TrEMBL record:
Keyword presence, Metal-binding: no
Transmembrane segments: none
Organism annotation: Fluoribacter dumoffii
Protein name stated in the entry: tRNA1(Val) (Adenine(37)-N6)-methyltransferase
SUPFAM superfamilies, per the entry: S-adenosyl-L-methionine-dependent methyltransferases
BP terms from Gene Ontology: methylation
Domain Methyltransferase small: from-to ranges: 25-122
Single Gene Ontology MF annotation: N-methyltransferase activity
Keywords attached to this entry: Methyltransferase, S-adenosyl-L-methionine, Transferase
The organism's taxonomic lineage, starting at the top: Bacteria, Pseudomonadati, Pseudomonadota, Gammaproteobacteria, Legionellales
Keyword Zinc-finger applies: no
Length: 207
């Protein structure tokens, strides 16, 4: 599979093809949207910005995307990638913060579309690396899965959609999809698996 851009990223940890294919899938879903340029979009757990940037390449009408990432190491790579894209019409906003902040009133109902490839593993399930950076990319260490879902639900606007990847963890005795339904059972949302990307479920959350 070819990449649309030659992305800069930390040598220590590279994004996976999951992110590239997620952006392509969402772009296909939005192909017939009447006004994609009007969408308020968030790339959550953004890393170096790959998913949002890929989406903007596939849907050139998109102009504005917010990117939320907690690890400062990604900041320089995000801006290098943005400069490489060299599309002055884009308004990409970088937010270095924990997604727990998306629980607040400031972020409530702010986005029509959220795309996200979050950490896959829970603490204690899987082998930790000597690298703290790698571990924070792969495990929910800065916060919890529950907090991540709350951030999605709070920051998503009415009639909004969130597309995110969810790794099955049955071999660890965990059913995250069932947990997801329990966490949101009293919320006015619909949740379903809509695809499988490289052994990972793609979840659609709709308000």
């Amino acid at each position: 599979m070819s990449f649309t851009y030659n992305y800069k990223q930390p040598d220590e940890y590279h994004f996976s093809l999951d992110s590239i294919q997620l952006a392509q899938f969402v772009a296909t879903h939005l192909k017939f949207h009447p006004a994609p340029g009007s969408l308020r979009i968030l790339d959550l757990c953004a890393g170096c910005g790959v998913i949002g940037m890929e989406l903007s390449w596939h849907l050139q009408a998109i102009r504005q995307i917010d990117f939320v990432e907690i690890q400062d190491i990604y900041t320089e790579y995000f801006y290098q990638n943005l400069a490489h894209i060299n599309r002055p019409e884009l308004q990409f906003r970088w937010h270095l913060l924990n997604y727990e902040e998306l629980h607040t009133k400031k972020w409530e109902g702010r986005f029509d579309l959220i795309i996200s490839n979050p950490p896959y593993f829970q603490p204690g399930h899987g082998v930790l690396s000597p690298s703290e950076f790698k571990n924070r990319c792969r495990f929910f260490l800065d916060s919890s899965f529950q907090s991540y879902i709350q951030a999605l639900e709070n920051s998503l606007a009415d009639a909004g959609r969130a597309y995110f990847l969810l790794r099955p963890l049955e071999h660890h005795g965990i059913d995250l999809f069932a947990d997801l339904h329990k966490l949101l059972k009293e919320k006015p949302v619909a949740i379903k698996k809509i695809a499988r990307i490289r052994s990972t479920d793609l979840i659609l959350l709709e308000k």
